[in-house]
Amino acid sequence: MSEATRPARHWLLAEKRAPLPPAGKDHLKLRKRVHLLCFLVFLALPFTNLMRVDIPRQRVFLGGAEILISEFSILFFATMFAMFVVAAMAIVYGRIYCSYACPQMIFSEWSVSVERWAANAAGRLLPRGGAGARKALGRGIFLAALAAASVVLAFIFTAYFVEPRDLLHRLLRFDLVTVGGLTGAVVTLLTFLDFTLLRQKFCTTICPYGYIQGFLQDRQSLLVEYRDPSAACIECNKCVRVCEMGIDIRKGPFQIECVHCGDCIDACEDVLRRVGHPGLISYSWGGGKAQDRGEPWYRRWGIRDAKRVAILAVMVAYLCALGVAIHGRKPVLMRLNSDRTTLFTRLPDGRIANRVRMNLASRLSRPVEVKVWVERLPGVQVGLDPNPLTLGPGQTLERTFDIIAPATWPGAQELNPIRVMIQSSDRNASDGADMMFIMPAGRN
C-alpha cells in the first residue's frame, strides 16, 4: 500500500498520552455479586417462609406472617405494592432490574458461562481429539450440568407453592401422578428448554417488561449512553463483543434489547484509559453523568424531581400501611354461627341446650389456647371439652358444641339475646358473635 493510500492513524493513538488510572468501578464484578446475593435470597425465601404461597394449605407466608388465601384484601394490596415497586424502579432506574435482579437474566448468563466452561473442560479432557469430538463432549457436559441444575432450580421454584419437605418426598419417589409432582416435572422441563434454547432471547421476544419500560421512562430515567463529542472512538468494537444482548450501544440508549448492565462501560473504559482518554459510555440521568460528584446525594440516587419524590412518598406510605395491616391481623380467625338444624334440645335434667358451630384457623407458627364463654345468660354452661382447647401451628378446626342454660330464670323469654365470646392466648385477641338463645314456648 502506498503512502498516499495508507489510512491515517487515529489521532488518539497518535498523541501517545499517558494511561489514565482505572475507573474505580467494575460493573461486571458488582453485577455478579448482586446476582449471587439474589440467588441466595431466591434459595432461602421458601425455606424460611418469608415469602411463599402454600397452595395445598391455602396460605400465604409474607414477612413471617401467615395470611389465609381467603384474606383477599391483604393479598391484593401486597400484589399491588409489588407491581408499584416494579413500575417505580422502571421510572427511576430504567432496566437495572433486568440486568441485576431478574432471575431469567441471572440464570441465562450462568448457562452461557457453563457452556464456555464445558467447552474448555472438553478441550482439557481431549487435547489430541478432533474438533468434532471435543465439541460433542463439551455439549454433553453442558447438557448434563443444565439437567442437574434444572432439577434443583425447579425444586426451589416449586417449593414456593408446596411445602419443601413434602415436595422432597415426592421428588425422591419420582412422583409424576399428583399435582405437586407433575408440576415439578413440567417446571424442570421448561427450565431446561429455557437454558438451552431461549436464554436472553426471552428478554426480547416474550418478556413484556422491556416494552413497558418504553412507556414508563422519561428524561430523568437512568440510561446507559454513549457520547463522543471529540470523535475519540477508535472502533475497537469491544463494547459490542462483551454485550450479552449483542447490541451496539453507539446506536442509541433506547434500544429495547439494552438492559443497562454496564458491561460496555467497563469495556470502553478498559480500552480508552490505556491510551489516556476516559471512556465514552456511562450511566446517565437525563443527559448528565450519574457519577457526577458535584450533585447532592439524593440526585445521584435518582430523586431528581417532584415526580420521583411523590413516587417515593407513596411507596413508603403504601409499605407502612401494608405493614400495619399485616401486624394488626388477629392471630386466630374465629367464626361462630348458630346451628339451627334443631332450634333447641331439652336435656334429661330439664335444662335447655342450643347448638353452636365454631370455626377456628390459626395464623401462628406456634400453638395457641382458645377459650369460649357466654355473656348475658345467667347460669350458662359451655359444653365444650376441653375449654380452653389447644390449636396447633397453622391448624384449622371446626367444632360444634352446646350452650346449656337452666330451664328458667328471671326475665327468661322464648328469644334471649346472648353474646358468645372467643379469646386466644396470643395477645389476648378476642372475637364475639351476637345470637339468640331459644327457649321452648310455654315453659312455665
UniProtKB/TrEMBL annotation:
Keywords: 4Fe-4S, Electron transport, Iron, Iron-sulfur, Membrane, Metal-binding, Transmembrane, Transmembrane helix, Transport. InterPro entries: 4Fe4S_Fe-S-bd, 4Fe4S_Fe_S_CS, Electron_Trans/Redox, FixG_C, Ig-like_fold. Coiled coil: none annotated. It comes from the Bacteria. It holds the Pfam family Fer4_18. The chain crosses the membrane at residues 34-52, 72-93, 141-162, 174-193, 309-328. Residues 223-252 form the 4Fe-4S ferredoxin-type domain. GO terms for cellular component: plasma membrane. GO terms for molecular function: 4 iron, 4 sulfur cluster binding; metal ion binding. This is 4Fe-4S ferredoxin-type domain-containing protein. It comes from Mesoterricola sediminis.
